[in-house]
Amino acid sequence: MIRKLRQPSLFKRLLAWQALVMLLAVGVSFGWNVWLAYQPKTGSIDRSMFLLAEAVARFAALDPSPAHATAVARQVKQLNQDNATLPTQDTDFAWQVWTSSGQLLSSDGMVNTFALSPPGSLVIGIRHDTGDWRLMAAQSPDGKVWAVVGQTRAFYSQLDALVLRQMVTIPLVYVTVLVIALWLATWRGLKPLQHLGQRIARRDAGSREPLTDAAHDPLELRPLTAALDAYALREAELRATEKRFFADAAHELRTPLAVIAAQAHVLAQERDPARQADMLHTYPVTAGCRPRRNELGCQNLC
Protein backbone atom coordinates (compact mmCIF):
# COMPACT_ATOMS: atom_id res chain seq x y z
CA MET A 1 0.00 0.00 0.00
CA ILE A 2 2.78 2.44 0.93
CA ARG A 3 4.70 1.54 -2.22
CA LYS A 4 1.59 2.21 -4.28
CA LEU A 5 1.10 5.59 -2.64
CA ARG A 6 4.71 6.52 -3.40
CA GLN A 7 4.33 5.77 -7.09
CA PRO A 8 3.89 8.72 -9.49
CA SER A 9 0.22 9.44 -10.01
CA LEU A 10 -1.53 12.02 -12.17
CA PHE A 11 -4.51 11.81 -9.81
CA LYS A 12 -2.41 12.63 -6.76
CA ARG A 13 -0.63 15.43 -8.63
CA LEU A 14 -3.87 17.11 -9.66
CA LEU A 15 -5.40 16.63 -6.22
CA ALA A 16 -2.37 18.08 -4.46
CA TRP A 17 -2.17 21.19 -6.65
CA GLN A 18 -5.89 21.86 -6.44
CA ALA A 19 -5.87 21.38 -2.67
CA LEU A 20 -2.89 23.73 -2.33
CA VAL A 21 -4.57 26.45 -4.36
CA MET A 22 -7.85 26.12 -2.45
CA LEU A 23 -6.10 26.12 0.93
CA LEU A 24 -4.18 29.24 0.01
CA ALA A 25 -7.42 30.89 -1.07
CA VAL A 26 -9.15 29.89 2.18
CA GLY A 27 -6.19 31.05 4.27
CA VAL A 28 -5.99 34.41 2.52
CA SER A 29 -9.75 34.89 2.79
CA PHE A 30 -9.86 33.99 6.48
CA GLY A 31 -6.83 36.13 7.27
CA TRP A 32 -8.35 39.04 5.39
CA ASN A 33 -11.59 38.74 7.37
CA VAL A 34 -9.68 38.62 10.66
CA TRP A 35 -7.70 41.69 9.67
CA LEU A 36 -10.90 43.50 8.74
CA ALA A 37 -12.44 42.56 12.09
CA TYR A 38 -9.54 43.96 14.11
CA GLN A 39 -8.82 47.00 11.95
CA PRO A 40 -9.10 50.23 13.98
CA LYS A 41 -12.23 52.34 13.47
CA THR A 42 -13.53 50.51 10.36
CA GLY A 43 -13.14 46.99 11.74
CA SER A 44 -16.23 45.04 12.75
CA ILE A 45 -15.23 45.03 16.45
CA ASP A 46 -14.76 48.78 16.66
CA ARG A 47 -17.82 49.30 14.51
CA SER A 48 -19.94 47.24 16.92
CA MET A 49 -18.71 49.28 19.88
CA PHE A 50 -19.49 52.52 18.05
CA LEU A 51 -23.01 51.34 17.22
CA LEU A 52 -23.59 50.60 20.92
CA ALA A 53 -22.40 54.06 21.94
CA GLU A 54 -24.38 55.71 19.15
CA ALA A 55 -27.55 53.84 20.13
CA VAL A 56 -27.21 55.06 23.72
CA ALA A 57 -26.64 58.65 22.58
CA ARG A 58 -29.49 58.67 20.04
CA PHE A 59 -32.18 57.23 22.29
CA ALA A 60 -31.05 59.11 25.40
CA ALA A 61 -31.36 62.36 23.43
CA LEU A 62 -35.11 61.75 23.03
CA ASP A 63 -35.52 62.48 26.73
CA PRO A 64 -32.29 63.78 28.29
CA SER A 65 -33.22 62.87 31.84
CA PRO A 66 -31.21 60.66 34.23
CA ALA A 67 -33.95 58.00 34.47
CA HIS A 68 -34.45 57.76 30.72
CA ALA A 69 -30.72 57.72 30.01
CA THR A 70 -30.21 54.92 32.55
CA ALA A 71 -33.08 52.90 31.07
CA VAL A 72 -31.70 53.30 27.55
CA ALA A 73 -28.18 52.31 28.62
CA ARG A 74 -29.45 49.23 30.48
CA GLN A 75 -31.54 48.19 27.47
CA VAL A 76 -28.55 48.53 25.13
CA LYS A 77 -26.42 46.54 27.57
CA GLN A 78 -29.03 43.78 27.64
CA LEU A 79 -29.22 43.68 23.84
CA ASN A 80 -25.44 43.47 23.67
CA GLN A 81 -25.40 40.52 26.07
CA ASP A 82 -28.17 38.73 24.17
CA ASN A 83 -26.41 39.07 20.82
CA ALA A 84 -22.82 38.59 21.96
CA THR A 85 -20.86 35.67 20.53
CA LEU A 86 -19.44 35.05 23.99
CA PRO A 87 -21.15 34.77 27.38
CA THR A 88 -20.71 38.17 29.03
CA GLN A 89 -20.88 39.28 32.65
CA ASP A 90 -22.62 42.37 33.95
CA THR A 91 -19.23 43.78 34.88
CA ASP A 92 -17.96 43.47 31.29
CA PHE A 93 -20.01 46.43 30.04
CA ALA A 94 -20.06 49.99 31.37
CA TRP A 95 -21.43 53.34 30.21
CA GLN A 96 -21.54 57.03 30.84
CA VAL A 97 -24.19 59.41 29.44
CA TRP A 98 -23.56 63.15 29.48
CA THR A 99 -25.29 66.26 28.29
CA SER A 100 -23.42 68.48 25.88
CA SER A 101 -22.92 70.96 28.71
CA GLY A 102 -21.01 68.37 30.76
CA GLN A 103 -23.73 67.15 33.13
CA LEU A 104 -23.47 63.41 33.91
CA LEU A 105 -26.93 61.93 33.35
CA SER A 106 -26.15 58.25 33.98
CA SER A 107 -23.34 55.78 34.61
CA ASP A 108 -23.08 52.07 35.27
CA GLY A 109 -22.62 52.63 39.00
CA MET A 110 -19.80 50.12 39.30
CA VAL A 111 -16.84 50.90 41.54
CA ASN A 112 -14.17 49.40 39.28
CA THR A 113 -14.91 51.22 36.04
CA PHE A 114 -13.21 53.70 33.74
CA ALA A 115 -12.63 57.30 34.72
CA LEU A 116 -15.13 60.01 33.96
CA SER A 117 -15.03 60.92 30.27
CA PRO A 118 -16.99 64.15 29.70
CA PRO A 119 -17.75 65.52 26.22
CA GLY A 120 -14.63 66.21 24.17
CA SER A 121 -12.33 63.99 26.24
CA LEU A 122 -12.37 61.21 23.63
CA VAL A 123 -12.32 61.18 19.84
CA ILE A 124 -15.65 59.99 18.45
CA GLY A 125 -15.47 56.68 16.60
CA ILE A 126 -11.92 55.85 17.74
CA ARG A 127 -11.27 53.07 20.24
CA HIS A 128 -9.41 54.16 23.36
CA ASP A 129 -7.64 51.76 25.70
CA THR A 130 -7.47 52.88 29.29
CA GLY A 131 -6.62 50.57 32.16
CA ASP A 132 -8.75 47.43 32.00
CA TRP A 133 -11.23 48.99 29.59
CA ARG A 134 -11.68 49.71 25.92
CA LEU A 135 -13.83 52.79 25.33
CA MET A 136 -15.85 54.18 22.45
CA ALA A 137 -17.56 57.58 22.34
CA ALA A 138 -20.48 58.82 20.26
CA GLN A 139 -22.73 61.85 20.11
CA SER A 140 -26.42 62.17 19.26
CA PRO A 141 -27.27 63.70 15.87
CA ASP A 142 -28.59 66.86 17.54
CA GLY A 143 -25.42 67.15 19.63
CA LYS A 144 -27.32 67.25 22.94
CA VAL A 145 -26.08 63.92 24.39
CA TRP A 146 -22.59 62.46 24.71
CA ALA A 147 -22.31 58.72 25.39
CA VAL A 148 -19.31 56.56 26.21
CA VAL A 149 -19.49 52.77 26.41
CA GLY A 150 -16.71 50.47 27.58
CA GLN A 151 -15.98 46.78 27.55
CA THR A 152 -13.33 45.03 29.61
CA ARG A 153 -10.07 43.73 28.24
CA ALA A 154 -10.97 40.33 29.72
CA PHE A 155 -13.94 40.18 27.35
CA TYR A 156 -11.72 40.95 24.38
CA SER A 157 -9.16 38.40 25.58
CA GLN A 158 -11.91 35.78 25.44
CA LEU A 159 -12.88 37.07 22.00
CA ASP A 160 -9.25 36.77 20.83
CA ALA A 161 -9.13 33.20 22.11
CA LEU A 162 -12.36 32.41 20.26
CA VAL A 163 -10.97 33.87 17.04
CA LEU A 164 -7.76 31.86 17.50
CA ARG A 165 -9.75 28.64 17.95
CA GLN A 166 -11.75 29.47 14.87
CA MET A 167 -8.54 30.10 12.95
CA VAL A 168 -7.56 26.50 13.73
CA THR A 169 -10.86 24.65 13.63
CA ILE A 170 -12.51 26.38 10.67
CA PRO A 171 -9.55 25.79 8.29
CA LEU A 172 -9.43 22.16 9.45
CA VAL A 173 -13.10 21.74 8.59
CA TYR A 174 -12.52 23.50 5.28
CA VAL A 175 -9.54 21.25 4.56
CA THR A 176 -11.55 18.11 5.23
CA VAL A 177 -14.48 19.22 3.10
CA LEU A 178 -12.23 20.52 0.34
CA VAL A 179 -10.11 17.37 0.17
CA ILE A 180 -13.22 15.19 -0.10
CA ALA A 181 -14.78 17.49 -2.70
CA LEU A 182 -11.53 17.76 -4.69
CA TRP A 183 -11.00 14.00 -4.52
CA LEU A 184 -14.45 13.40 -6.00
CA ALA A 185 -14.01 16.16 -8.59
CA THR A 186 -10.58 14.88 -9.65
CA TRP A 187 -11.81 11.30 -9.82
CA ARG A 188 -14.72 12.35 -12.02
CA GLY A 189 -12.50 14.63 -14.08
CA LEU A 190 -10.08 11.79 -14.91
CA LYS A 191 -12.86 9.39 -15.92
CA PRO A 192 -12.26 10.05 -19.65
CA LEU A 193 -8.72 8.64 -19.25
CA GLN A 194 -10.14 5.42 -17.81
CA HIS A 195 -12.65 5.20 -20.66
CA LEU A 196 -9.86 5.75 -23.20
CA GLY A 197 -7.84 2.95 -21.60
CA GLN A 198 -10.83 0.62 -21.85
CA ARG A 199 -11.32 1.49 -25.52
CA ILE A 200 -7.65 0.79 -26.24
CA ALA A 201 -7.85 -2.53 -24.37
CA ARG A 202 -10.88 -3.63 -26.43
CA ARG A 203 -9.23 -2.72 -29.72
CA ASP A 204 -8.06 -5.62 -31.86
CA ALA A 205 -4.42 -5.82 -32.96
CA GLY A 206 -3.94 -4.23 -36.37
CA SER A 207 -7.35 -2.53 -36.27
CA ARG A 208 -7.69 0.70 -38.17
CA GLU A 209 -10.83 1.76 -36.34
CA PRO A 210 -10.22 5.30 -35.02
CA LEU A 211 -10.13 5.95 -31.29
CA THR A 212 -10.94 9.63 -31.66
CA ASP A 213 -14.50 10.49 -30.73
CA ALA A 214 -14.87 14.20 -31.44
CA ALA A 215 -18.38 14.28 -30.01
CA HIS A 216 -17.44 12.95 -26.57
CA ASP A 217 -13.67 13.18 -26.06
CA PRO A 218 -12.40 16.21 -24.09
CA LEU A 219 -10.21 18.63 -26.01
CA GLU A 220 -7.19 17.64 -23.89
CA LEU A 221 -7.44 13.98 -25.00
CA ARG A 222 -7.81 14.60 -28.72
CA PRO A 223 -4.06 15.04 -29.42
CA LEU A 224 -3.44 11.74 -27.62
CA THR A 225 -6.17 9.84 -29.48
CA ALA A 226 -5.06 11.37 -32.80
CA ALA A 227 -1.46 10.25 -32.16
CA LEU A 228 -2.67 6.75 -31.24
CA ASP A 229 -4.78 6.58 -34.42
CA ALA A 230 -1.80 7.64 -36.56
CA TYR A 231 0.39 5.05 -34.82
CA ALA A 232 -2.25 2.34 -35.36
CA LEU A 233 -2.46 3.27 -39.05
CA ARG A 234 1.31 3.03 -39.48
CA GLU A 235 1.31 -0.30 -37.63
CA ALA A 236 -1.49 -1.66 -39.85
CA GLU A 237 0.38 -0.59 -43.00
CA LEU A 238 3.56 -2.25 -41.75
CA ARG A 239 1.68 -5.47 -41.02
CA ALA A 240 0.10 -5.38 -44.50
CA THR A 241 3.52 -4.86 -46.08
CA GLU A 242 4.99 -7.77 -44.11
CA LYS A 243 2.05 -9.97 -45.11
CA ARG A 244 2.57 -9.14 -48.81
CA PHE A 245 6.29 -9.82 -48.47
CA PHE A 246 5.78 -13.27 -46.97
CA ALA A 247 3.09 -14.07 -49.58
CA ASP A 248 5.45 -13.09 -52.39
CA ALA A 249 8.30 -15.04 -50.81
CA ALA A 250 6.12 -18.13 -50.44
CA HIS A 251 4.97 -17.82 -54.03
CA GLU A 252 8.51 -17.38 -55.35
CA LEU A 253 9.81 -20.34 -53.38
CA ARG A 254 7.00 -22.68 -54.39
CA THR A 255 8.38 -23.56 -57.89
CA PRO A 256 12.07 -24.05 -56.89
CA LEU A 257 11.00 -26.22 -53.98
CA ALA A 258 8.80 -28.28 -56.26
CA VAL A 259 11.72 -28.78 -58.68
CA ILE A 260 14.02 -29.75 -55.81
CA ALA A 261 11.44 -32.16 -54.49
CA ALA A 262 11.04 -33.74 -57.95
CA GLN A 263 14.79 -34.04 -58.43
CA ALA A 264 15.16 -35.53 -54.96
CA HIS A 265 12.43 -38.04 -55.78
CA VAL A 266 14.13 -39.01 -59.08
CA LEU A 267 17.47 -39.21 -57.36
CA ALA A 268 16.01 -41.43 -54.67
CA GLN A 269 14.57 -43.77 -57.31
CA GLU A 270 17.87 -44.10 -59.17
CA ARG A 271 19.76 -47.26 -58.16
CA ASP A 272 22.89 -46.81 -60.30
CA PRO A 273 25.55 -45.05 -58.17
CA ALA A 274 27.32 -43.67 -61.20
CA ARG A 275 24.17 -42.19 -62.59
CA GLN A 276 23.29 -40.76 -59.17
CA ALA A 277 26.66 -38.98 -59.07
CA ASP A 278 26.17 -37.68 -62.59
CA MET A 279 22.69 -36.37 -61.70
CA LEU A 280 24.08 -34.60 -58.62
CA HIS A 281 26.70 -32.75 -60.71
CA THR A 282 24.31 -31.81 -63.51
CA TYR A 283 21.38 -30.29 -61.51
CA PRO A 284 19.41 -28.38 -64.17
CA VAL A 285 18.27 -24.80 -63.82
CA THR A 286 14.52 -24.51 -64.25
CA ALA A 287 13.61 -23.38 -67.72
CA GLY A 288 12.44 -19.79 -67.97
CA CYS A 289 13.93 -18.80 -64.57
CA ARG A 290 15.37 -15.30 -64.65
CA PRO A 291 16.65 -13.28 -61.70
CA ARG A 292 14.33 -10.34 -60.91
CA ARG A 293 13.44 -8.08 -58.00
CA ASN A 294 10.07 -8.01 -56.30
CA GLU A 295 8.27 -4.93 -54.98
CA LEU A 296 10.28 -5.04 -51.72
CA GLY A 297 13.57 -4.89 -53.60
CA CYS A 298 14.52 -8.52 -52.87
CA GLN A 299 16.02 -10.59 -55.69
CA ASN A 300 14.06 -13.73 -56.67
CA LEU A 301 15.77 -16.62 -58.42
CA CYS A 302 12.61 -17.84 -60.19
Q: How does this structure look, described?
A:
- A hairpin with a 5-residue loop joins strand 6 and strand 7.
- This protein has two domains: 9-189, no CATH class; 219-300.
- Helix 2 packs antiparallel against helix 5 (153-189).
- The chain is built from eight helices and seven strands.
- It has 302 residues and is of the alpha+beta class.
- The protein starts with a helix and ends with a strand.
Q: How much is the average pLDDT? A: 80
Biggest β-sheet strands, sense, barrel: 5 strands, antiparallel
End-to-end Cα distance = 64 Å
Model regions low in confidence, pLDDT < 50 over at least 5 residues: 285-302
Tell me the strand order in the biggest sheet. 2-1-5-4-3
Which percent range fits the helix content?
55-70%
**Hey, roughly how much beta strand do the residues contain?**
5-15%
* Number of contiguous helices: 8
